Amino acid sequence: QVQLVESGGGLVQPGGSLRLSCAASGVALDGYAIGWFRQAPGKEREGVSCISSNGETTDYNDSVKGRFASFRDNAKNTVYLQMNSLKPTDTFVYYCAVGRVDCLGTWYYLYPWDYWGQGTQVTVSS
Prior knowledge:
By secondary structure, the chain is mostly beta strands. The protein is built from no helices and 11 strands.
């Protein structure tokens, strides 16, 4: 049974940083790309980032480029999303997803991803 567990969310002031983790069980992440998505209540889920299975290719939503970075530790079967210079507009529930997805393609759609975590809340507020 595949399980993804996100952690690291919380309340942070504007300009602050958080690091989200996505830990997997039941699947070896080194064979898969990892996506990070986010969603506000009543809104569509949007793609934040994609990192390839070997970590050499990444892509980001324009709204987070230069502020967010995704990296992976395949030995720990964990992927991370480092979020810096956070803004109130980054307030969402963040989800990780696993799939055999091309991070140079249309990774930001929901359908290519096979497994999803339960999400972690990130709130940016003073």
